[in-house]
Write a structure and sequence with these properties.
single chain, Purple Acid Phosphatase, chain A, domain 2, 16 strands
Length: 239
């Protein structure tokens, strides 16, 4: 079962944008996800990390997903912690699919400016470093309506929230992996009962529960989630 969660973000733009947020597929089976995205007809697909871990046999599934989606939609892809070991030639393979891989880089989609934060730095896992924050500061000065793809949601509260970035999109927490009575139990980087495991926070941070799994612990009371985000003057109330 795939949950589709709708978010509505008001913004003074000349048009309204519909964006599909994909996170944490972890080399999973993607055909049903792709068909659902096609039916939703987004203006773009935004990937906030952990689509894959490496380009092994399972990673080939994620490459096929990227290629299929980039043939139909603009795709913007920021890497996650499981992608920190990718070699430059492997990142070139990701880019060859037609997806725009953003590693402390920006891209434009009409009036939107999309930024992709650098993934974890090997040897400094979970740390929001000066290299990350230098990009955050520069991105806050970019023109257009700024959307930052930041895999780790806990980094929002560690410094990103202090800058003029209207929308931050994250994953990583897997919705808490196990959810009891609707509450997340654990997330790496946040520990027990994490605050940023899913949903919208402060009207600017959206955290997806993600789509796959990479641990021996199954998702429990926690269906995979595709987030559909509407940004613009026609987006009435924040969901």
């Amino acid at each position: 079962m795939l949950d589709i969660t709708q978010y509505h973000v008001p913004a003074q733009l000349d048009k309204t944008y519909r964006l599909a947020l994909v996170t944490d597929l972890h080399n999973g089976v993607w055909e049903h996800l792709a068909e659902t995205i096609r039916q939703m007809k987004p203006d773009a697909i935004l990937i906030a990390g952990d689509l894959l871990g490496n380009l092994d046999t399972r990673g080939a599934r994620s490459i096929a997903f990227l290629r299929a989606m980039a043939a139909a939609f603009p795709v913007f892809y920021a890497l996650g912690n499981h992608e920190r070991w990718l070699e430059p030639e492997e990142i070139d393979v990701l880019r060859s699919t037609g997806a725009q891989v953003l590693i402390n880089e920006t891209a434009r989609l009409g009036m939107l400016t999309v930024g992709g934060l650098l993934q974890d730095i090997a040897g400094k896992e979970e740390q929001l470093t000066e290299e990350h924050m230098a990009f955050v500061r520069s991105f806050a000065d970019e023109p257009g309506y700024r959307i930052l793809l930041c895999h780790r949601p806990e980094w929002y509260n560690r410094g990103i929230r202090d800058y003029d970035i209207p929308l931050v999109l994250s994953g990583h927490a897997h919705g808490g992996q196990i959810r009891l009575f609707g509450h997340p139990v654990f997330s790496p980087g946040q520990g027990l009962f994490p605050k940023y495991a899913q949903g919208m926070h402060e009207g600017r941070l959206i955290v997806s529960r993600g789509l796959g799994n990479h641990t021996i612990c199954p998702r429990f009371f926690n269906a995979p989630e595709l987030c559909m985000i509407t940004v613009g003057t026609d987006a009435a109330d924040i969901g």
